[in-house]
Structure formats: C-alpha cells, structure tokens
Specification:
1 helix; alpha+beta; globular; three-stranded antiparallel beta sheet
C-alpha cells in the first residue's frame, strides 16, 4: 500500500455553519463536516474514493502534491 500526502484547504462557512475542505491537487475535490475533525475525515474518505475511481478508470493521479499557496489580496470596495 502506498501512502500519499495531499494539501487540504480548510475553512469555516458561517452561512452553512460547517467546515469546508478543498483538495486543489485533485481537481479541487471538496467536502464538509460539522466539526474540523469530521470535515477532515470526510476529506480522507473522499480522497480514497477519488484514488480508487481514478485507478479503475485508468486516470492519471498526480505523483506529488502541488502545495497550495494562500495569498492575501487588498481590494478597494465601492
């Protein structure tokens, strides 16, 4: 069994009142959970499902994660 590591962006959605995760390397795979831990567990399950589907369909999966960069932009609001 191969172990892979993926960068996950995790943020709180105040409207939905859930934690939302994104995996940029895997086509911005996204899921959510009521707690951070639940969101990360859902993300782990989604990644495993993605990798299994990719293998079954003969799709290429990135060999290494592209480290997401978070950049802060200053924007003037009208």
């Amino acid at each position: 069994m191969t172990t892979r590591r993926y960068g996950v962006l995790l943020e709180w959605d105040p409207e939905a009142e859930v934690w939302v995760s994104f995996v940029p390397t895997l086509g911005s795979l996204s899921t959510y959970g009521d707690t951070r831990e639940e969101a990360l567990e859902q993300t782990r399950d989604a990644i495993v499902g993605y990798l299994e589907a990719a293998r079954n369909e003969g799709m290429a999966v990135p060999d290494r994660d592209v480290e997401p960069e978070i950049v802060e932009l200053e924007v003037a609001s009208p």
